[in-house]
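To whoever picks this up:

The parser on our side crashed when reading a file containing two proteins. I've narrowed it down to the boundary between the first structure block and the second sequence. Both blocks are reproduced below exactly, byte for byte. First block:
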Amino acid sequence: MLSGLLKNFLDRTCPVWPRLEGKKVAGLAVAEEGVGQAIQNFKTYASLCKMHWVGSVTALAKNPGEVALNKNLKRRLNRLAQRLLL
């Protein structure tokens, strides 16, 4: 199952797919109970566009602002950002 927002993003980027080849990409997902297939769907999209997948970060949160308090998440996001920049 694909979320409507992700489907809309994928559809709207079709015209630029050739320009995405070789670019680095990472996945981020926040959900209340589980990220489900979100990261896998985005990873498949990256593969179709021949992009270089560098990783992903996921988090669970039930309330607004809850993710911002997660110090472990900040560390994981920093590591992912470093992989995108190298």
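<<boundary where parser fails>>
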Amino acid sequence: MLGTTRYMERKMKLRIVMLLASALLALSPANAEEILNATMFKQPYCSCCDGHAEHLRTNNFRVTVVETDQLAKIKARHGVPPEFEGCHTLEIGGYVVEGHVPASVIRKLLKERPKIRGISLPGMPDGSPGMGGTKREPFIVYEIGPSGGRVFAKD
């Protein structure tokens, strides 16, 4: 009788372990998006840049924010033409991203890996991630590189 009780206890513990393992697997699906590391360079006290960093974080980006008054030098180092400058510069996966580019477009860049320096959503369009206001038209994201000015994506 004592042997039967121990057998039943072990069987019950095994079931609990199997259920917990199944629950953990369900919480981490195979198709979960990879967490991407990025560094954002911005002017101190820029709240729209902080808003864009938060947009990226909610989309599985790990963003390190570096406040600097040397943005012009960072943009020049990456070869960002003045017409493509945004209010902040993001370094990610060997690319430069200028301005309030949506996370989905950055993921497209990193998936396709084109031979360009980066992408830009110039200016500070209303309704873009981190900006207030309402999106009035599709965002046009440009390539930064040899083809200078070619459209990379519309979002």
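After patching the parser it read the second block fine. The chain has four helices and seven strands. The chain has a mean pLDDT of 85.
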